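Design job #97: recover the sequence.
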């Protein structure tokens, strides 16, 4: 699923010529999604006015969408949860056509409820799903895609250099179903968390201390640690290692840290975003001896962490070798990169 970028300067030039501004897509009578190049977003747009919609960000490598079936499921589930009339099949076909022209890059798709005759928050009550507006923008791929690692099901995923992480004080909102886990346009809690992380990075740069902080771990309002500022999190505990003690299993840990030990991920039943890569990894482990376990990550667990990584669909896996707690202590973690 991951390929190495070639001739990135040429690809970036091609990208800019293809799509450099937001385009609006709209359904035709024959169910083909067409472009409207001169459309603009106004304050009447419900995504701008109320955050009434959702988005997904799609990596494109060698003209193909990465993890298309998972992005398709996001379109279906989010449209259903928000009662939006999205032709997911047609839209995915259109996105793949854009990906073929783009070759290398990132496509961001925003879907908002269409302007309503009902004043304020409300929308038409006599319809099962509202009509919607679909917006698309492509940008250059600035991520090195040369290094990757294997999942248990054989899929290859991008892997980033090992870095450190820090616990943040900003908290995520707890939401009722069906909003919890959605990649909705209401992301102010993530914005504030990202702002806190950037301030900590800037402070580290000024003091020349603890350079290389790559992500922040964020709690929700219940006090459980849920995810990063822009990535999901998986973790291992020192008392929950793999029961496979064979030489092969031990070798796997030195070669590829993903394939050894029991991994957990926080359940996203009341907060956070159920990311594409998170589901890819859960599915990859589903038929192994150690499927991923949904388990809350609490304060008492942090000193007992053995392994930790963050992930998202664009950047793949980000291994963490140290986590700074709120009190300033640093938990050292095992996260050996694959020798590939």
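Job complete. Output follows.
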């Amino acid at each position: 699923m991951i390929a190495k970028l070639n001739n990135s300067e040429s690809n970036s030039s091609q990208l800019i010529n293809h799509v450099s501004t937001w385009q609006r897509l709209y359904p035709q009578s024959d169910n083909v999604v067409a472009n409207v190049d001169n459309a603009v977003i106004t304050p009447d747009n419900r995504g701008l006015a109320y955050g009434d919609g959702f988005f997904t960000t799609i990596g494109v490598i060698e003209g193909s969408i990465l993890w298309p079936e998972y992005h398709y499921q996001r379109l279906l589930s989010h449209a259903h949860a928000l009662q939006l009339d999205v032709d997911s099949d047609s839209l995915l076909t259109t996105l793949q056509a854009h990906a073929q022209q783009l070759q290398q890059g990132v496509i961001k798709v925003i879907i908002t409820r269409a302007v309503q005759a009902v004043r304020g928050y409300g929308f038409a009550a006599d319809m099962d799903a509202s009509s919607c507006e679909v917006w698309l923008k492509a940008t250059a791929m600035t991520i090195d895609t040369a290094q990757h690692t294997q999942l248990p099901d054989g899929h290859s995923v991008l892997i980033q250099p090992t870095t450190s992480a820090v616990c943040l004080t900003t908290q995520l909102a707890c939401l009722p179903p069906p909003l919890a886990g959605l990649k909705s346009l209401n992301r102010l809690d993530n914005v504030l968390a990202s702002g806190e992380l950037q301030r900590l990075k800037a402070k580290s740069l000024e003091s020349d201390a603890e350079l290389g902080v790559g992500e922040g771990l964020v709690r929700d309002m219940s006090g459980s640690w849920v995810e990063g500022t822009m990535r999901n999190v998986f973790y291992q505990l020192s008392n929950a290692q793999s029961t496979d003690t064979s030489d092969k299993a031990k070798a796997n840990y030195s070669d590829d840290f993903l394939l050894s030990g029991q991994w957990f991920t926080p359940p996203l039943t009341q907060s956070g975003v159920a990311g594409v890569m998170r589901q890819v990894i859960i599915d990859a482990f589903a038929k192994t001896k150690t499927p991923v376990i949904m388990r809350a990550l609490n304060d008492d667990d942090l000193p007992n962490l053995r392994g930790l990584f963050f992930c998202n669909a664009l950047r793949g896996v980000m291994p963490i070798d140290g986590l700074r707690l709120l009190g300033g202590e640093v938990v050292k973690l095992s996260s050996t990169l694959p020798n590939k």
